[in-house]
């Protein structure tokens, strides 16, 4: 029998006909509360509301069959054993925020319920079945966990934690939130958007991360390269058969990867920042919640990456400004040193000019002195070998070292010895 959405399927029920059945239909028919009425030790599904079948998957809406035939996955999770216990003892059972895996791969999903198993009795008080009444709390629980983790990530970004730390924490957070094993990878786009670099992948093997570090963006380059190229999510449910993974199939096989869903990370202006990928160990089709989770964290990753780019640009600008300041300070110091050196040369030239004038005056009495006249206050005892003069007609005799100093510091000085051949002969000596 197939249930009609929104209605309560019914079957022969000696304890639930007439007004009682109508009351149940009124109470639970359109309710968001999950309701099912089971009969006998085999827990035959006699009636259930739309919320029950919506929770387990409407394609499995059947009645007059054991619950274990409708939901075989419950057997390994202990729920059928609990039903047996309630049927046998007549004692109700209540569970709060109980985790249930519904469906099988690749369509399995994690769900949480508050529920009660309540025994049904006939007029004599004998247990003839069980009523299942509950409320799915999956979205509330996921929302609570998601908001807590998301808030922690935003706080990391606000305190300017290193990008690698933020992305690694985000990957671990999503892996912990996932109902089944999931491996998360974040790749960062090069400035030109043509290649993707490793960002974070705490649970993927190192050899895999190294192999895909630097992959090109383009159509058919795995899930991530294609998602980056298209600027839209790319879902590969089975790597072993998907053409996008031809070049990476052996690599994925060695890493034990069977499915990969990739979402591009985009900046506010639409430019590519990177990709956010969810890997699975077995072929798997994403649920709407999976895709929503990817979009939320891709947006958060974009915020972290853009913030990082802004900080890097700020640091680069500060470094450039400091370098320019240092160069300016260096130029100022060099200019000061040159000025001081020029002043020293000017002082030396003035002193030599004064010495030459004094020597010229003394030469009137002694045409060729014996000792160097260019030593100044220190007086030089070396023999006077060379005569120098300046453009004003002043002349003096000095030793070779003092004469050379005078020539270097006083532009107008020249060799005046006729026997030495003048200035040219001195320079070529």
TrEMBL record:
Xref: InterPro entries: GAF, GAF-like_dom_sf, PAS_4
Keywords: Coiled coil
Superkingdom of origin organism: Bacteria
SUPFAM superfamilies, per the entry: GAF domain-like
Keyword Coiled coil attached: yes
Start and end residues of each GAF domain: 158-315
Coiled coil: 321-351
Protein name: GAF domain-containing protein
